[in-house]
Amino acid sequence: MSPTPFTRTDIQALRDALDTLVTTQGSPGGIVVCGTSAGQRHTITAGVVAPECGDAPPTEHTAYDAASLTKVVATWPLIGRALDTRLLDLDTPVGAYLPPITGDAPGADATIRQLLTHTGGLRAETRLDRYRGDPTPLAELLCREPLDEPPGRHRYLNRGFILLGLALAHIHRRPLHELATELWTDLGMTDTTYGPVTRNPHVAPTEQRLTGAPRIWGGVHDDNAALLGGTASHAGTFTTANDLAGYAEHLLDPEHPLHTWLTTSRTPHAPVEPGLDRGLAWLVADDGNVVYHHGWTGTSLYLAPTTGRYVTICTNAVYHGPPSPRLAPLRTLARKTLTTT
């Protein structure tokens, strides 16, 4: 079945929502790409990259800190590849894929599936700064901490994805950044990389943590990812609207290997709220017809496998502080637009 193209009304509505985000100081600027698996793309821009970067608007090649989009742009596809080659099994505890852990380690009993679906019961708070100076391997430190609750209930957290990244590095005997770079090269995502990246007008700055202090610019916004050197399985990726659009086209292509993994991953596993479930990494909405994921800094990726449509959002909305409420109208519209025919 041919994908459903976006109408002029769809595109104008997204343009208006992005303009409103910028004019109400929800973000210095941003770029939205809406397209289909057939390669049709419509690019919408507003504002500037940031005042520090001059008057030029963002482009499809402006690099944004993807934050938690890293989970579905790096870790999730790498897990899919490892499953295909039988290096991993979804229902095996993650401890089987980590270096041997001594003593009681309840976190090691969480399965790969539970970590992907945020249902492992692991401690929600992840403060890697508390491990400073401890020579114990990170996987062991994370797994030794007691669970917050028995496995089963959905609670979004980063700890599980950090363990997934450590498991990927261990089973491949290669660092995560090498695995991810190889993946992105294969997918043609030539602008996507782990930080830090060099400050320049084509890299969107994020937050100013202290008045008078330099703004975060080219470095990862997430504190735990920064402590891991910028390479982490829950955050740390810098990407562009162009690369996200190309990635979406691959995922929606029935002939691409990752399409099968996406089909498996959009089966609901745990309720999040009425009408919204967690699949394998992705949020699943509209009876499985839409899957999506957000990044705290102001990024989103929406996919509609049944219509062959996608919407990517790249902003640095965290530039002005916590971004989620300001981004909500644009994100809600992006989701709605995917299922409008």
Automatic annotation (TrEMBL):
Single Gene Ontology MF annotation: hydrolase activity
A Pfam family it matches: Beta-lactamase
Tagged with keyword DNA-binding: no
Keyword presence, Transmembrane: no
Domain Beta-lactamase-related: 18-334
Spans through the membrane: none
Keywords: Hydrolase
InterPro entries: Beta-lactam-related, Beta-lactam/transpept-like, Diverse_Enzym_Activities
Descriptive protein name: Esterase
